[in-house]
């Protein structure tokens, strides 16, 4: 039985991360730094001796570009890849495209903080973290996890909030715990799972 390997990577820095804008389902590409972060993620995975059987990503450019750059470093271009909006970033609705400082001026710092950091309060026209989990988790359980448990070495390149949904389950975090979990751009997290889908080991390749 081959190892049950699952690697999660948040996309590299995007143009809108740099500009401090709410991004959500908007589709900016990576910055120069984001490209470097993605390539570095690939080099780190290669240094670990990892190769993959399958990959998953969102329908957004920044995640797909990150995955492509990682696979390039691994010499695995052409790896079978599934793209699904279930792995998209949280939809920030009316906040999308706004500068975070401008949003605070418009709605007040406390209100914007609630939208950003509460578990189940969505911004106007958008999704809460709970809503994001509600679409990302079934996809993980039905589409990604069975392959991992069958020995398919799996790489997922997605977004801070959609990956939080997977991490919440993997690490058995509470809603409060997952809200506090920060994910750096372009940093792979390597999980090896037990047969019952619990985590046997975890390695964060930060630094």
From TrEMBL:
One of its GO terms (molecular function) is phosphoglycerate mutase activity. Substrate binds at residues 10-17, 23-24, 62, 89-92, 100, 116-117, 160-161. Pathway: Carbohydrate degradation; glycolysis; pyruvate from D-glyceraldehyde 3-phosphate: step 3/5. It holds the Pfam family His_Phos_1. SUPFAM superfamilies: Phosphoglycerate mutase-like. One of its GO terms (biological process) is gluconeogenesis. It catalyses: (2R)-2-phosphoglycerate = (2R)-3-phosphoglycerate. It is an enzyme of class 5 (isomerase). Signal peptide: none annotated. Its EC number is 5.4.2.11. The keyword Isomerase applies. InterPro entries: His_Pase_superF_clade-1, His_PPase_superfam, PG/BPGM_mutase_AS, Phosphogly_mut1. HAMAP family: PGAM_GpmA. Homodimer. Belongs to the phosphoglycerate mutase family. BPG-dependent PGAM subfamily. Catalyzes the interconversion of 2-phosphoglycerate and 3-phosphoglycerate. This is 2,3-bisphosphoglycerate-dependent phosphoglycerate mutase. It comes from Bradyrhizobium stylosanthis.
